[in-house]
Specification:
The complex is a heterodimer.
Chain A: H1 13-16, E1 24-31, E2 40-45, E3 56-61, E4 73-74, E5 94-98, E6 105-109, E7 118-123, H2 125-132, E8 135-142, E9 147-153, E10 162-166, E11 173-176, E12 190-193, E13 198-201, H3 207-210, H4 216-220, E14 227-232, E15 237-243, E16 248-256, E17 264-272, E18 278-286, E19 289-298, E20 301-302, H5 310-313, E21 317-318, E22 322-327, E23 333-338, E24 343-348, E25 356-362, E26 387-389, E27 395-399, H6 404-410, E28 418-424, E29 430-439, E30 444-451
Antiparallel strand pairs in A: 1-2, 1-30, 2-3, 4-5, 5-6, 6-7, 8-9, 9-10, 10-11, 12-13, 13-14, 14-15, 16-17, 17-18, 18-19, 20-21, 22-23, 23-24, 24-25, 26-27, 27-28, 28-29
Chain B: H1 6-22, H2 28-38, H3 41-72, H4 75-95, H5 108-123, H6 130-135, H7 141-171, H8 176-179, H9 183-200
Classes of the chains: A mainly beta, B mainly alpha.
Chain lengths: ~475, ~200
């Protein structure tokens, strides 16, 4: 127990932008070699003055195989300063690391040595099924009263997916979050407007719809998720669904404004059946109800079928396959990972209704295979995927693996495994850091990145 | 106020009220956050009223119980029980601090009353007044109890309002991350000290 608040807690996103630069990054590694090695959590040195900059410092191997690490989060964050349930003297200390396939949740302790964390506890899938009825845990957010975790389905691999809660102190599974889920069936990401008592959830598919890979029949039939759901956070009741249209397949990442007085946010859609474009939608409050509108459309790029995997040959085009988005803490820049076309886009969203494309970096891509400046002659597979922005907005990190089954479908000759960094200058201009190109060895693919002390998608703030 | 000299007791009650008012978990921070949400100072003031009502109701319930006990039961029994409760509750809070499970900010007038009541009760705010209430050999114990509650409330309300307004209008909440001392520990110790005082007055 601390006598003063954890120094990584900030009352507002504005304050958090003054945080010191991160020294370490934690990266989820998925074992894809087929040699029976377990998944792992890598610790990466991101201190530019360090001799081991851009290299792995340690790798925490998980006790079992086949977990399929994906997303993860912290046990506590700035939400602990919220006025209605203050618990400012807990520590941001444990990483909550779910296995998306195994449904096992690992509690990894970053104390006493943050460069060499260790596993403190493992929550077995049986406990989650028994207490919450869910499997395939995905997004983790530290809430004011509990740790919230989304889950894609039930024990049989069907829906409904939803959200369950872990006790902040003991990490015991408390139970399912929803009191009334209304029409919601599919699940994926969630976040909230914490001070407005609003929860927002998105839709991918049930475990049975996704674990065999992207199913063209389901996709072309418009069966993957295409709704946004709005909930009353207090009563845990479903309040409103918005259908983006069945052609908008897979509504994934949700990024609400970091300023709690604002009532808007961005949702990324992977692919449109109409033209293979990806899109970003703005949700906002309009006369008391929620409304959405498409504010960004990223078109597919024509390509020679010879360069394309079987699934895309007939289209002669590469879809952007927008897989992740991330919003800087000042709500100014939205980064968009185009995993298919191998592009990281930077939009100025100062006016959220009228984003402006202000930056772009090419790396990897199904057809493009753009190299990294560290080795300009070497074509790269995979593309910008999980993206994380430092609290001060000056550094952007991303990795290149999306989801095991999808990697193999879209990059059948091997997706590779890399992590890169962009520098953002005082005017917001982005540039690839030529000194930061980390390849993970041992057949491990890199997924989500979390930065020491918090980042642009880890914390919720209750003050403007 | 026989057991404790008059001035000291009234001053202590007032300061105890100030101490409660100063605690961010006793209301002012909630009021500030609501003001920020609506971007107007009026929302801060509007929230203070129900938050204070909840706190006072919680404290008043304990005070009423203590006064009634002091009237009906022998003093050594009352003091013994009061000291036991204070020491026990203080020790419990020192060992096992449960955090509030409350979720929600758009809670309305009665919601804020309830929140104030629950937070004050969970912290044992009213218990701290018990030694003062039971110490007196007043001829009008209920009136004396009410006066003590009023003095406590004055300290609480004045401090809470002043802090909320200054923080909202001038200082901002940035300082919380370094200045928000773990009052749970101090609070638990205060309960234990009050318990010891109750044993000897």
């Amino acid at each position: 127990m601390l006598l003063k608040p954890d120094p990584t807690f900030y009352a507002s996103a504005k304050d958090a932008m003054k945080a010191p630069p991160e020294m370490l990054a934690y990266v989820a590694l998925l074992s894809a070699s087929g040699n029976g090695s377990p998944d792992a959590l890598a610790v990466v040195d991101v201190d530019p003055s360090s001799a081991s900059f851009a290299r792995e410092l340690d790798r925490v191997e998980l006790p079992n195989t086949g977990d399929e690490l994906h997303h993860f989060g912290w046990n506590a964050c700035s939400a602990a300063l919220c006025p209605f349930a203050p618990r400012p003297h807990v520590e941001r200390r444990y990483l909550i690391v779910p296995g998306l396939r195994s449904s096992r949740i690992h509690i990894i302790d970053t104390k006493p040595d943050p460069a060499h964390p260790r596993i403190a506890r493992v929550i077995e899938p049986e406990e989650i099924v028994e207490r919450a009825g869910y499997t395939r845990p995905h997004t983790v957010h530290c809430g004011p009263d509990a740790i919230y975790v989304s889950a894609l389905g039930n024990a049989a691999g069907d829906g409904p997916g939803g959200i369950f809660m872990l006790d902040c102190d003991t990490f015991d599974v408390i139970g399912p979050w929803e009191a009334d889920r209304g029409p919601q069936y599919l699940a994926y990401d969630f976040w909230w407007h914490l001070t407005q008592d609003v929860m927002v959830t998105s839709e991918w598919g049930t475990p049975n719809m996704i674990e065999g890979g992207l199913d063209p029949n389901l996709l072309l039939g418009g069966k993957y998720g295409h709704h946004l759901h709005f909930w009353d956070l207090r009563s845990r009741r479903h309040a409103q669904s918005i259908d983006l249209g069945a052609e908008q397949q897979m509504v994934l990442e949700l990024r609400p404004s970091h300023d709690p007085a604002n009532a808007y946010g961005f949702a990324g859609v992977v692919v449109s059946l109409k033209d293979l474009s990806s899109s970003i939608w703005l949700w906002h409050r309009n006369n008391g109800a929620w409304a959405v509108q498409k504010v960004i459309e990223i078109p597919a790029e024509p390509a020679d079928p010879a360069q394309l995997p079987d699934m895309l040959k007939g289209f002669s085009a590469v879809p952007p396959l927008l897989s992740d988005i991330d919003l800087s803490l000042d709500d100014r820049y939205l980064y968009a990972s185009c995993w298919g076309t191998g592009e990281m886009r930077q939009y100025d969203v100062s006016d959220p209704f009228a984003p402006k494309l202000v930056g772009s970096v090419h790396i990897g891509g199904i057809a493009r295979r753009a190299p990294h400046p560290a080795n300009p002659s070497r074509p790269l597979a995979g593309g910008p995927q999980m993206v994380e922005i430092s609290r001060d907005g000056r550094r952007v990190y991303f990795t290149n693996s999306l989801y095991r089954a999808w990697d193999d479908q879209f990059y059948p000759d091997g997706v590779g495994s890399w992590m890169v960094k962009l520098d953002v200058d005082g005017d917001g201009a982005i540039a690839v850091d030529p000194k930061f190109f980390l390849e993970f060895d041992g057949g491990h693919r890199a997924h989500q990145v979390r930065l020491q002390g918090g980042d642009a998608s880890s914390d919720s703030y209750c003050y403007s | 106020m026989g057991g404790m000299s008059g001035h000291f007791a009234w001053t202590a009650l007032f300061l105890l009220g100030c101490y409660h008012g100063l605690n961010p978990a006793m209301g002012w921070l909630f009021a500030v956050a609501l003001g920020m949400q609506e971007r107007r100072i009026g929302a801060v003031l509007l929230a203070i009223v129900p938050l204070a009502v909840g706190h006072i109701a919680s404290v008043a319930a304990i005070v009423a119980l203590a006064v009634t006990a002091a009237v009906d039961l022998p003093r050594p029994v009352v003091h013994g029980v009061a000291a036991g409760v204070l020491l026990g509750f203080g020790a419990y809070r020192l060992i096992r601090i449960r955090h509030p499970r409350w979720v929600g900010m758009r809670v309305g007038f009665w919601g804020l009353c309830l929140w104030g009541f629950l937070m004050s009760s969970a912290h044992g705010a009213g218990l701290m007044l018990v030694p003062f209430v039971t110490a007196g050999a007043s001829t009008a114990p209920y009136a004396a109890g009410a006066a003590m509650l009023a003095v406590h409330t004055l300290g609480y309300l004045a401090t809470m309002t002043a802090v909320a307004l200054v923080v909202y209008a001038k200082v901002g909440v940035s300082f919380l991350r370094t200045a928000w001392l773990n009052v749970d520990v101090i609070w638990a110790i205060a309960l234990i000290v009050t318990g010891i005082v109750a044993l000897f007055v």
